Amino acid sequence: MNAINAIVxxxxxxxxxxMDEARGNIFLVGMMGAGKTTIxxxxxxxxxxTFYDSDREIQKRTGVSIPLIFEIEGEAGFRKRETExxxxxxxxxxxxxxxxxxxxxxxxxxxxxxxxGTVIYxxxxxDDLWRRTRQDKNRPLLQTQDPRTKLLELYGQRDPLYQETxxxxxxxxxxxxxxxxQLLAQQLACSR
Length: 192
Ligand SMILES: Nc1ncnc2c1ncn2[C@@H]1O[C@H](COP(=O)(O)OP(=O)(O)OP(=O)(O)O)[C@@H](O)[C@H]1O
Ligand SMILES: O=C(O)C1=C[C@@H](O)[C@@H](O)[C@H](O)C1
Ligand SMILES: [Mg+2]
Description:
The protein has a single domain, classed as 3-Layer(aba) Sandwich (Rossmann fold), CATH 3.40.50. 55% of the residues lie in helices and 14% in strands. The chain is built from 8 helices and 6 strands. α3 crosses α4 (66-89). It is globular and about 45 Å long. The model is unreliable at 1-6 (pLDDT under 50). Magnesium ion (MG) binds next to α2.
């Protein structure tokens, strides 16, 4: 696949096929701080789709924050809730969904996402991810002695899984969230 501006991997043939079977759904995957929530909301606005954020839906349903779920139920408890939430959300139509950063860890989740929508991997460098997340205490996995090293470790583990799940890979690079959302909206509109 050739580099097209910020969009580094956009396989049109595959995308047409995927869009046919995708019920109009777009699923964003990527690391914490990749911009899934920010870009997802903007993209939904441009494409006139309904925006959902899996983390937010879990918080709405449980009435507590993600860090508190991690504290009480551990990561395994959170992952179970995340899979339940994704199973519901993938059944809808015409949505843009920002998934949680760890959604791709489960093979079941990866398969569900691939089968029910066009999956976009928002890819960013560890330096950018670190800059965007370092001030934010809302990410339990980064509450360690050395969060930057943890981020690097998670990136190494997850980057192949995001790539495996995605139909489209977008390098977030130096572009603003708004500009990226605009580029994506244009590409997706063209491939319909
Ligand atoms: N392309 C971008 N350029 C500059 N800043 C960005 C970009 N994308 C996101 N940001 C900023 O980075 C921060 C994190 O973004 P966001 O919360 O959307 O990430 P996320 O992928 O949803 O993370 P999480 O998996 O933890 O929910 C926000 O402050 C957002 O404004
Ligand atoms: O990267 C992760 O594993 C996570 C990212 C967030 O979106 C939340 O889903 C939670 O903090 C876990
Ligand atoms: Mg988010």
